[in-house]
Amino acid sequence: QVQLVESGGGLVQAGGSLRLSCAASGSIFNINSMAWYRQVPGKQRELVTAITGGASTNYADSVKGRFTISRDNAKKTMYLQMSSLKPEDTAVYYCNAAIVVAWYRPSPSDYWGQGTQVTVSS
């Protein structure tokens, strides 16, 4: 069984910073791409940023220059450094990963964390 556990959310003032972590555990052979999504009540979950196994990254226009995604493959952990936070960044942030659980099952499966709340006050 594979688990993704996010941590690092909380309440911060506008202009502040937070660092989210997403730790993967369980039966894992390889982690391909990883991503952060966010969702506010009544809206669809949106992609914030993603990172491939080769560390290529992409960002939503709304967070470019403010957020940085990274990963530590040895620790099976992904990070999201968020700076210059704005009230519109308030959301539940979800970790997502495409994980291969065994060498004999090369197709990755999609896994999600439980989410962590980020609240930015004005």
Reconstruct the topology from this structure.
Layout: E1 2-7, E2 10-13, E3 18-26, E4 30-39, E5 46-51, E6 57-59, E7 67-72, E8 77-82, E9 91-100, E10 109-112, E11 116-121
Parallel strand pairs: 2-11
Antiparallel strand pairs: 1-3, 3-8, 4-5, 4-9, 5-6, 7-8, 9-10, 9-11
Please characterize this protein's 3D structure.
By secondary structure, this protein is mainly β. It is built from no helices and eleven strands. The protein has strands spanning 2-7, 10-13, 18-26, 30-39, 46-51, 57-59, 67-72, 77-82, 91-100, 109-112, 116-121. 30% of the residues are buried.
- Please summarize the sheet with the most strands: 7 strands, mixed
Assess the beta-strand content as a share of residues. over 45%
Shape: elongated
Secondary structure: number of strands: 11
The stretches of 5 or more residues where confidence is low (pLDDT under 50) are none
Please report the distance between the alpha carbons of the first and last residues. Answer: 40 Å
Query: SSE order, as H and E?
Result: EEEEEEEEEEE
Q: Note the total helix count.
A: 0
- The average pLDDT value, as a whole number, equals 96
Structural class: mainly beta
Helix content: under 10%
What's the Cα radius of gyration? 14 Å
